[in-house]
Specification:
heterotrimer; A mainly alpha; B alpha/beta; C mainly alpha; B: alpha/beta; Rossmann fold; 2 domains; six-stranded mixed β-sheet; 22 strands; about 35% helix; C: ABC transporter involved in vitamin B12 uptake, BtuC; two-stranded antiparallel ribbon; two-stranded antiparallel sheet; 14 helices; 4 strands; globular
Chain lengths: ~325, ~525, ~325
């Protein structure tokens, strides 16, 4: 079991190691980590910390994609939930009730998407596009167009605090990743989700309650987006409805794809997606560090996607299997 | 038509063979189509009809054999190539684009142009003229899917004929048409026959085959059973050819003549039906009893199974288990009531191809337990190993994706999936189709074992001899209605064939079954 | 009525009702000035949306157009600044580049059998990245050709101005309608949207059509970039972020089925106008905040997607009823 798991995530680990090695080669000070004000500092920590929102989004996105769906709305949901959290603390809510309200907002967004996909049977990409477009408007409605700033110590701690010298966002995504992986793999959810993703009809004929499960994965995605939104808002001590989570849905999908989960659904690995998120962040950080103009960031990202596309292409896979067994077909 | 009967064939296939991994879909089949002939091609699912058609139209490359068109050897590379050579095909699922207009569908790729632009006016006028030849007066500027399937069918025929013009293959063209529409279609077919086309007609409606065809070719298990002029053949003989029994053969096996059951049935279904799918029927299944279900393709066999498993829902009637009513509104309900269902279409409704043998086996039990109560890895492994041993599933290990197994072994995995739930009532739809001989025998033995163990089974099969072996009773289905129930000594292949073949004797058989039991 | 025309009719009706409501509140909205501004302000979006319409009709999606528009602006501005070239040859060079760019994406989609969503996502990153590489700052454009084109307009009755770019958008829409309904390519696009497998069986050149569709989208995104640079007199790599979303929204509100195969280029025109009208209304009102635009567009999207879904279900019901009845 463990060997199989390692083999599954080996390509992602190797890629991450290669990226990190490349950065360390260009920028020798990469591995310098220091402790100041009870918090660790340094480039590796920075990657883990900056990558938190995408990592969180990737957790929920992995499950959604495993069922054969996609959630385009997570960036907008981040904005909504960040705005809700900011609004709550400005209304003098306590930290617990603020978090509760904000996370509930994320869950509600997930229920909405799940309803459109599972009950109205609208294509996931179309269904979640609605909230992607309207969501930012809703977030602006809450912030009334301004950046809602706050000074609530507890909420700020979520974005820039540290526990045992480790930044809170890092702990949050690690905890969330571990929690969801544990729930999904220790319960039967993982199996049922993969079954739906491969063959929904056959799964339903085996008595799998596909509808409820699909709503549940979109709710998970909403919850992860809410947490990411809270961290993003806490980080800048304000909710920016316009820019919070902007285009992060694309990074999250990319992280899942790098993690080797097929966009057609089926087998998934949350750990691999999380490593995928870190690869994306490492590339971002690496470009910054290595003195490359940050302009090249997107070009390199596009190059990475292209390489992955070629590697994962079904057409290419057919071509290689076609060559191997010495043209036994036809 | 004063045709010389021995006119040279328009299209001829000789010694055609085609294999797929695990099965020989066509085995040395010969077939000849004359000009101005409607030639029916018959056989149950898996008989090789569609493989033959696909070889003729280039959708498959044949392994061996020759295809001659007008005496010249041809080798169609794909359907487009076959079309250019003169062989056009129209399928049951109309292979036109529902979102385009009728005229666009007719002329896609060949639109009349004017000043470098399509001239819709000319295109529509041409379309109207073309369709008028088929007696169809419709507005060709309207979207195709705004017309009935029958009209779409004729449009597809018009396109195929105008592009190819020698041979027309009609694959189940009447499956979704009503009586009136079938007559209209037959008018079109007769018109084309008069124009000299050779027409291959595939249908499972025997009445229609007798009404329209000049000759009939029957395939069975990938082999040619025979070609006969329609005039020389009757229903009984035809069904015997299709289901593989010789009339002469008198060594008929009878079912296990079980004593009449006087106890109340464990499962009672009363007045269950669904409009447009299956007429309301009553069905009792006792514990430790196999009820067989016989009928031709499309007769309502699968519809019965899906209804009982809650797939389609039912309009009226009631299901009872041990006298208590059970809800059957969804497969989940059925699973909760202790039902299991092995669907006919294993690939798209049965196996979860990318998941492992182990995961496929535990799926139904896990779904019933709910997501919270995960079956431990150790128990999953134990279950998988147990079933792999018990059912002799040939796989390198339990972690192999089930899609990589052979058909017979996939079927055993599907059976294991349901056996793992300890079902009280198991519905098997064509459990032995498309699997090798060894697995075939093992599955039949398994059915008998399960029955002996007290399970109730409903088994649908087009292998009548097979039904005789394991059925206590056999229900015969025709035209989406349960028409007869054979009990005891009447469970013979011959009786089944008669019940399937003779519409007017249906009620008589239903009555006789009561008197015999 | 023909079910295919229903969403288009709904779009036009919504536009007319919306305009009537605007007029009832602000009689000034009926002037040709407002109409002229509506066309000018939405010219770049409209042109890009025509390309998007073809892509969506074929069952695909193109996420790269916002980035391509920004790239185009920067490309033009940088070339005009750093070389002595006249804008016209620069325009031609640009259109060749963006068309080839689109064609390349189409080829990847077809030959690697990858979902358009991911391929054009890569295109989106690449085009935006190339824009950054050319220049991070906003580069102003000053050239007499630009001045000439910008001051070119036709004075409509009522003193409204139909500007060059507004007129160009109208021309592009007319050309788009012609291509969609009067060329074999146009019919092939609809055919792909109706079902790739069936289309292939019916002889549609799937590879060529797929590549041409994305090439057309790239070409129109480039043209839209030229128009945007005329509109803003600058090239800025951070401009037109998210325009692909606006274009998709305009196409869907215009009555085109997002899953492909059904819709009209003319519908997209009204979709663009409805979105422009909502914005104009928000500006006229003064008390409404800009975010209501997004929420209103989101609601319209929802309404149209549910309407389309309803129509599809209805057709299926009718078909299956006809089958069993």
């Amino acid at each position: 079991m463990n060997a199989r798991f390692l083999r599954r995530i080996a390509p992602q680990i190797a890629t991450l190691a290669a990226v990190v090695a490349l950065i360390a080669f260009v920028f020798p000070g990469f591995f310098d980590i220091s402790l100041a004000n009870g918090r660790l500092y340094g480039s590796p920590i920075d990657i883990l910390n900056r990558g938190a929102p995408v990592a969180l989004l990737a957790i929920g996105m992995t499950l959604v994609i495993a069922t054969g769906g996609i959630d385009l709305s997570v960036g907008a949901v981040m904005a909504i939930c960040g705005a809700v959290a900011a609004w709550c603390v400005r209304q003098d809510y306590g930290l617990v009730s603020t978090l509760a309200v904000s996370l509930s907002a994320g869950l509600a967004c997930g229920v909405w998407n799940g309803f459109l996909v599972a009950v109205l049977r609208i294509q996931p990409i179309v269904a979640t596009l609605i909230l992607m477009v309207a969501g930012r408007g809703i977030a602006q409605l809450i912030t009334e167009g301004a950046i809602l700033t706050f000074n609530h110590e507890g909420l700020i701690f979520m974005g820039s605090g540290a526990v045992f010298a480790i930044p809170t966002p890092v702990l949050l995504w690690l905890a969330m990743g571990a929690l969801v992986t544990l729930i999904v793999r220790r319960s039967a959810l993982g199996l049922l989700i993969e079954a739906i993703g491969v063959n929904q009809r056959a799964s339903m004929l085996s008595g799998v309650n596909a509808r409820v499960l699909i709503v549940a994965v979109y709710m998970t995605s909403g919850l992860c987006a809410a947490l990411a939104g809270i961290i993003a808002a806490a980080d800048i001590r304000g909710a920016d409805a316009n820019n919070a989570g902007l285009w992060l849905e694309l990074d999250a999908i990319l992280a899942v794809v790098i993690g080797g989960t097929s966009l057609l659904g089926g087998r998934f690995s949350i750990v691999a997606s999380l490593i995928g998120a870190m690869i994306i962040q490492a590339v971002n950080t690496g470009i910054l560090l290595s003195g490359f103009p940050p302009e090249f960031n997107l070009v390199i990202k596009a190059g990475i996607i292209l390489v992955i596309l070629v590697l994962q292409s079904p057409a290419l896979r057919v071509a290689t299997t076609f060559i191997k067994p010495a043209r036994s077909l036809r | 038509m004063n045709l010389v009967p021995e006119s040279p064939p328009l299209l001829r296939a000789e010694h055609l063979s085609k294999s797929f991994p695990g099965t020989k879909a066509l085995d040395d089949v010969g077939f000849a189509l004359r000009a101005s002939e409607v030639h029916a091609l018959l056989g149950e699912n898996g008989a090789g009809k569609s493989t033959l058609i696909k070889c003729l139209t280039g959708a498959y490359r044949r392994d061996a054999g020759d295809i001659l068109l007008d005496g010249r050897s041809i080798d169609p590379k794909d359907t487009l190539h076959a079309q250019r050579l003169g062989i056009g095909t129209v399928y049951q699922e109309v292979n036109l684009l529902p979102n385009l207009t009728v005229a666009e569908n007719l002329f896609l790729g060949h639109q009349p142009m004017r000043f470098g632009l399509i001239s819709p006016r000319r295109m529509n006028a041409d379309a109207e003229a073309l369709l008028a030849q088929y007696g169809l007066a419709i507005d060709p500027a309207r979207q195709l899917d705004s017309y009935s399937v029958a009209v779409q069918q004729v449009v597809a025929i018009a396109r195929a004929v105008s592009l190819s013009g020698k041979v027309l293959i009609l694959d189940e063209p009447t499956a979704s048409l009503d009586q009136h529409e079938v007559q209209m279609l037959f008018g079109v077919i007769r018109g084309l026959k008069a124009r000299g086309l050779g027409i291959i007609f595939i249908s499972h409606f025997l009445d229609q085959v007798f009404a329209i065809s000049d000759r009939i070719t029957v395939l069975r298990n990938g082999r040619l059973v025979g070609t006969e002029p329609t005039a020389n053949i009757d229903r009984l003989k035809l069904i015997n050819m299709m289901l593989g029994r010789e009339l002469a053969e008198e060594t008929r096996k009878t079912g296990r003549v079980a004593p009449a059951r006087t106890d109340t049935a464990k499962f009672r279904f009363e007045g269950m039906g669904k409009r447009g799918r299956i007429a309301p029927f009553d069905l009792d299944v006792h514990a430790g009893e196999v009820v067989g279900m016989a009928g031709l393709l499309g007769s309502g066999r699968t519809e019965t199974a899906e209804l009982l498993f809650g797939v389609s829902g039912h309009d009226g009637g009631e299901a009872r288990k041990d006298g208590r009513p059970v809800r059957l509104a969804s497969p989940r309900d059925a699973v909760a009531a202790g039902f299991g269902f092995l669907p006919e279409d294993r690939k798209s409704h049965g196996i979860i191809s990318e998941l492992s043998v182990r995961e496929n086996i535990v799926l139904a039990l896990q779904a019933r337990l709910g997501w919270m109560k995960r079956i431990s890895s150790r128990r999953q492994m134990a279950m998988a190993d147990d079933f792999i041993r018990r059912l002799d599933i040939r796989t390198s290990d339990a972690e192999k994706p089930v899609g990589q197994l052979s058909g017979g072994n996939q079927q055993k995995v599907m059976l294991a999936r349901w056996l793992a739930t300890n079902p009280e009532f198991l519905i098997l739809d064509e459990p032995t189709r498309g699997i090798d001989v060894g697995a075939h025998a093992e599955i039949i033995r398994l059915i008998e074992e399960l029955c002996a163990g007290g399970m109730s089974l409903l088994v649908i099969s087009s292998e009548l001899d097979e039904l005789v072996v394991y059925s206590n009773r056999v229900v015969v289905v025709r035209d989406r209605t349960h028409v007869a129930e054979l009990v005891g000594e009447n469970v013979t292949a011959e009786r089944m064939v008669q019940a399937i073949a003779a519409p007017e004797k249906a009620s008589a058989y239903a009555a006789s079954s009561e008197t015999v039991s | 009525m023909n079910a295919r025309l229903f969403p288009l009719a709904a779009t036009i009706a919504i536009f007319l009702v919306a305009y009537a409501i605007c007029y009832a509140q602000f009689p000034a909205m009926l002037s040709t000035r407002v109409v002229g501004n509506l066309l000018t302000d939405n010219a770049f979006l409209g042109i890009a949306a025509v390309g998007m319409t073809f892509v969506i009709l074929s069952g695909g999606i193109d996420l790269s157009i916002g980035s391509v528009i920004a790239f185009s602006g920067v490309f033009i501005a940088v070339l005009l600044r750093d070389t002595g070239l006249d804008p016209l040859p620069v325009f031609v060079m640009l259109l060749v580049i963006t068309t080839l760019f689109g064609a390349a994406m189409g080829a990847v989609i077809y030959f690697l059998e990858m979902p358009p969503f991911i391929v054009t996502l890569a295109g989106m990153f690449l085009a935006r990245g190339m824009a950054y590489v050319l220049s991070i700052d906003s580069v102003p454009i000053a050239h007499e050709t630009y001045d000439a084109l910008q001051s070119l307009y036709w004075l409509m009755p009522g003193k409204g101005r139909l500007t060059f770019i507004g007129g160009l958008m109208l021309v592009v829409f007319l050309a788009g309608i012609l291509v969609a309904h009067r060329t074999r390519f146009g019919t092939n696009v609809y055919a792909l949207g109706g079902g790739v497998q069936t289309a292939r069986l019916m002889g549609v050149p799937v590879a060529r059509t797929t590549i041409l569709i994305y090439a057309l989208s790239g070409f129109l995104a480039g043209l839209s970039g030229i128009v945007f640079s005329l509109y803003t007199s600058a090239g800025y790599s951070l401009a037109t972020v998210g325009v692909e979303l606006d274009a998709i929204a305009a196409v869907v509100i215009g009555g085109t089925l997002l899953t492909g195969g059904s819709g009209f280029v003319a519908g997209t025109f009204f979709g663009v106008l409805i979105m422009g009208l909502i914005q104009t209304y928000v500006i006229f009102d003064g008390t409404l905040s800009s975010w209501w635009t997004k929420i209103a567009i989101g609601l319209l999207l929802l309404a149209f997607i549910v309407l389309q879904k309803g129509l599809v279900v209805l057709t299926e019901r009718r078909q299956s009823a006809a089958r069993t009845g």
